[in-house]
Each structure stands twice: as structure tokens, then as C-alpha cells.
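comment on this one:
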Amino acid sequence: MTSLTARGAATRDRIVAAAADLMYVRGVHATTLDDVRAATGTSKSQLYRHFPDKDALVHAVIAVRGEQVLARESERLEHLSSFGGLLRWRAALVQGSARQNGAYGCALGSMASELADTDEHARVSLAGLFRAWEELLAAGFRRMQDQGELRPEADPGRLAVGLMAALQGGYLLASTAHDVRPMEIALDLALDHVRSCLTVPG
């Protein structure tokens, strides 16, 4: 990457951005390198100069998507310290999914469902990104404990994993139904459990 010219770096970024969009809507396996070339107006030689094969491009897409998702979630969760903050986080996620009628799911989750059993590099990368996302939630739960809102015996890590599982399952059901309602239900049930762990449930 350090040897790329500014023009070369811009071309690479354009290829990755287009591939990310195509893979999100069509799926990883259904997106071909020819699709990416057509979307970016690049030649075969340009594409292969940056990415020798599709796997290399997919791994670059995972890195970029992961950076985007974690930046978004960091902004939403880095100051989380109350149940009200969790409700606002839930509302933002549902609103984002509702803009596309629940279609396509989570940018990371959709890739994980396609790649986890066939691409070990991708699986490990995605697992690390999910752990980082879960840690943002767990840190918020720890802040809630520090402020006395969450019971001391509650396990922030377990709550974070449970909430992430509800979120990803909700994304999947919303994607197949093209309806955001299953995602709302999954998140609300998970948050009901968190509510039961508050020092003053209600």
C-alpha cells in the first residue's frame, strides 16, 4: 500500500467500495470480478494489479466494511452508560434497516453467513470484528454497573453476546422477510432481559 501512487490508491479504494456495495446487495458469491470491473470502469490489468484474485478483494472488503461498522458503532456506543442509551442504539439500528425494508441484513453478518465455512481467513477476520463490536457493548454495560444502574452480579460479556446474537438473528429474519419487524422483536426481547438486570427494573 505504501508504494501506491495517489492515483493508484484512489483506484484501489474505488474498486473496494464498488465491490462492497455489490457484495452487500447481491452477495459475495454472486458478485464476480467482471461485475466489479463494470461498476468501476477498470480494466482487467488494473483490477489484477491491486487484487490478484477474488479472495484478496473479498478480504479487502471485509477490512473496509469492518472499519465502517466499528466506526459507526463506536460513535453510538463509546459513551453508552444507561438503559435509555441502549434504547436509542436499538432505534438507530432498526431505523437504518427500515430504510431498505429490512433487506440485505448486516454488512458483516451477511458476509459471515456466506464465508465462515469456506474461507478461514475471512472467518477469523469477521470473528474479530464481532468481538470488537461485542466489547463496545460490554464496556457500556460495565459503565452502567459503575453508575449503579446495572446489578453488580450481571455479566457484561454475556449480556453483550446475547444482545449481539439477537441483533444478528434479527437482521437475518428481517432480510429474508423484507420486513424490519422480526429485528425489532428480537432486539426488544433481548433488551427485556437487560431490563430485568437493572437495579430498578421498569
Remarks:
- The radius of gyration is 19 Å.
